[in-house]
Amino acid sequence: MAIGVLLKQVPDTTAKIGVSEGRVDETAVSKWSMSPYDEYALESALRLKEAGGEDVVAITCGPTRAAKMLTDAAAVGVDSLLHVLVDDLSALDSTQVQSILAAALGRADCDVVFCGKQAADTNAGSTGPGVALLLGASCVSHVSEVSPDGGGYLALRASTGGDERVQVSAPCIFAFDKGDEELRRPNVRGIMMAKKKAIETISPSDLGVSLDNSRVTVVSHTPPPEKPPGQKFEGAESVATVVGKLRDEANVI
Amino acid sequence: MDVTVIADSTADGLNPVTAQLVGAASSIGGTTTVLCPGGVGSSQASAISGVAKVISVEGDCFGTFEGGAWANALNSLATGELILAAASPRGRDIAASLAAIRKIPVIQDVTGLEAGMVVTRPIYSGKAIETSNVSTPCVITLRANAFDDAPEGGSADVGTVNQSADVGLAVKEALAKASERLDVTEADIIISGGRGMGDPSNFSHLNEVADIIGAAVGASRAAVDTWDEIPHSMQVGQTGKTVTPSLYIAVGISGAIQHLAGMKTSKYIVAINKDPDAPIFGVADYGIVATWEDALPVLKSELAKL
Ligand SMILES: Cc1cc2nc3c(=O)[nH]c(=O)nc-3n(C[C@H](O)[C@H](O)[C@H](O)COP(=O)(O)OP(=O)(O)OC[C@H]3O[C@@H](n4cnc5c(N)ncnc54)[C@H](O)[C@@H]3O)c2cc1C
Ligand SMILES: Nc1ncnc2c1ncn2[C@@H]1O[C@H](COP(=O)(O)O)[C@@H](O)[C@H]1O
Q1: Pocket, ligand 2, Cβ cutoff 6 A
Q2: Domain count of chain B?
Q3: pLDDT tens digits for A167-200?
Q4: What is the pTM of this model?
Q5: Any CB–CB contact under 8 A between A183 and chain B?
């Protein structure tokens, strides 16, 4: 058995997103990074290993460029790397992505899985709960901390009434929120070792997943609507004017 | 088209977004059945105009939240060609789980829905908008405040069904909520503070404003990371919460791109910042160049006059 961590490579949060001919222009993205919540998922997976857990397997599904992110994960201590090569992720619907990741987790023999609560590109939050369903696992979402507890795990999760500590046993998936732990940074030795670390690269069909037609067709991407330029006022006295406008122009108070 | 709406609720009853789900269903000519997990809010739901039927779904499994278990319990009743839920944390979990059980696609956080299942939603944290066509059956979650409420005035029949499902997790400890305040994702007005507040104790000024207008209090990541007193649950932005209130007031927040990602689609934005070049002014409908020390007392007294 192993600890699985699902990592997605996305445009860095500082990167501009341009649209050309009705599609987001990925070639114009200046920097690709690991999706922010996945970084916390990875950190927590490594801590679980250090607390006496199994080896950590990082899995991504995506194009060739995503291999770099797996190498980055190896540099901070991931034991093995699995890359399911798919050139255009945006052509897949949620069920297809989930089938691929569930099959990959099965192949890597993972019974405890860490992922992000939502990816920075899709902003969806579908993958953790969906993959859990396919694997017959429990999914705990909005988790910020995981620790071993007897034969199972204790997870701190955000809930409608405040935070809760919940107990769960494998098979289970933790969909991570921002955690409180400091993220580890790679050292030189880690980076050197990672360069030599093999990435197992396979296709969806190697996993026995056949990709039929997606049931979601993207019609177009557009830039967000431009807001009309705002009004700017100098000095605290102007607060009264703004309050008047909020009441009379905007009707929001 | 038959639409199943999964009611969004807390222990206290329905969240306002439930009426928006019904409104969206009606706008595309749907015949709407509302499922109330745990039976919460069923009489409230039956009073929403446009609801054909309410099913109060009861069972032990609703005692603890687990998206997969709740979806399993709701599944046999969620027979609509379109299943609508709120893009709230729980709503998204239930929606994704239901879609996985039924092997149908799920689209989260939709802000526009037209007949023929043409949906629009922000992607890349609002840096682009995606329009897509989804085949039915499918599950869609809607962003709060992006759709008009269905009015009150309905009187749908309420049925009760008992369901069971295996729950794989158990709550061992409930930690006190950081504050008794409204959560930012539930609020129609939010006032947020950033590092410019100088000290966490100064958030009391934001609380006072919030009390006058019934707002929630939010924070930037710099505030959350710098001060232990400001919990992550208050954070708005890329790695915090995404909010779409009618009014967002940013105080001492510079307007970094990751903060904007979480609040840019608010209907109206007010910024109070001492730096006239702060990027937050680029998205503000009403910008006030002033220190919070000067501006907040005036804000308090002006709001109190309303
Ligand atoms: C991957 C990633 C994810 C991130 N996610 C988030 C996120 O979810 N949310 C988020 O907010 N940030 C996020 N950030 C951080 C973001 O980049 C900024 O660092 C952060 O938003 C800055 O917070 P701030 O505006 O409070 O602080 P600062 O940038 O320090 O700005 C403080 C502002 O207060 C003003 N000010 C100072 N004194 C006063 C005064 N007396 N009166 C009025 N104004 C005053 C200053 O002019 C300044 O504009 C993320 C960063 C990364 C890399
Ligand atoms: N293509 C992918 N490869 C690896 N992990 C993924 C992929 N898509 C989603 N995930 C994981 O699932 C999380 C939620 O994604 P999403 O459902 O798209 O918001 C991400 O933060 C990742 O941890």
Answers
A1: A 6-8, 35, 37-38, 41, 60-62, 89, 97, 101, 115-116, 118-119, 122, 124-128
A2: 2
A3: 999 999 999 999 888 999 999 999 999 999 999 9
A4: 0.90
A5: no
